[in-house]
Amino acid sequence: MEIDDIYAVRLQRFRTLMDDRFGGKQAAIATAVGKPANYVSRIISGNKKLGEEIVREFETSLDLPAYWFDGLTDIAAWPFPSVSRAAYESLTPEQRRGIEQWVARQVEAFGDTHTPGAGNTKKSA
After folding, report:
1. Do 9 and 17 form a contact (C-beta atoms < 8 A)?
2. Does the model's pTM come out above 0.70?
3. What counts of helices (H) and strands (E) characterise the chain?
């Protein structure tokens, strides 16, 4: 998943949550997450991205499962069985962002090399 894709997923889930749980009212969800209404307005308009730190904060404020905004709602969705989720979550947001960006580059590099029957030998980034 591209970095921009995760922001799109988070925004779509935020909008759906606002509609379903808060009757589509920006002021109501703003109060629930402890942010001013204009902050929510900037999110909805796309002028403010839902970054790693803020979505984790919103998940806590709204009593949602960890990684709900990312579409990962249960432990079975954790994609790295050899990496402890708790160890990953103990990293700083900056460290997690760096790992996410590295994984995204690797996925893209391997995706470019795996064309069936093409005999491509390009190596990872």
Report:
1. no
2. no
3. 6, 0
End-to-end CA, the chain? 16
Distance CA 14, CA 21 (A): 10
| 119 secondary structure, DSSP code | -
Neighbours of 30 (CB within 10 A): 19
Question: Considering the domain boundaries, does residue 88 fall inside one?
Answer: yes
As given in the structure block, the two tokens for residue 27 are 């002021």
Tell me, yes or no, whether 71 lies in a domain.
yes
Give Cα separations from 58 to 63, 83, 108, 112 (angstroms).
8, 25, 30, 35
Range of the domain at 38: 3-113
CATH number of domain containing 78: 1.10.260
Q: In degrees rounded to 5, what are phi and psi of residue 65? A: -65, 150
- Give the whole-angstrom CA distance, residue 62 versus residue 31: 11
Tell me how far apart the alpha carbons of residues 125 and 112 are, in angstroms, rounded to a whole number. Answer: 11
pLDDT digits (tens, 9 = 90+) for 35-69: 999 999 999 999 999 999 999 999 999 988 888 99
